[in-house]
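Good morning C.,

I know you're traveling, so I'll keep this short. The sequence:
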Amino acid sequence: MTLNPRRLAAVWFADIVGFTRLSASDEQSAVRLVAILQQAARSATAAHGGRVVNFIGDAALAEFNSTDAAMKAAMRIQREFSAAAAEAGIDSCLRIGVHVGDVVQSEDGNLFGDGVNTAARLQEMARPCQIVCSQDVWRHLRPRGEFAFDSLGERQLEDITGKVWV
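The tokens, ready to paste straight into the viewer:
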């Protein structure tokens, strides 16, 4: 596999809350939620100039050229997913982690690197229906005044060297 040069990208991971539990008790609803996630991810990324990198089970990875676009798309997918799930009679939402960092892209378009890994770990620490971003994203977005942030403090993320402010 050939990797392209390292570059900076804003990325997010979005994961369906309670998916494993739901799939054990109601496989049809679980499959429906994955379809809703995929549609919402495609819609949100397209609306904000990003791209869905891939779907991994009940999660989506997306990339953007700016933190502004990534955060707006994260907010949009959260709204669209929750609304579509409710319309389908399923109470569900997403956990989303947003980060800006170095990535490398493989020939097939997949992304790897610290930027992707950090976004995945931020997503894991998010509470249901919450979007968690790194301080790096916050620094880019704070001056705009368009977004409201609450600090969660400095955290050690699994398999990430050093602590990360979230």
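Safe travels,
E.
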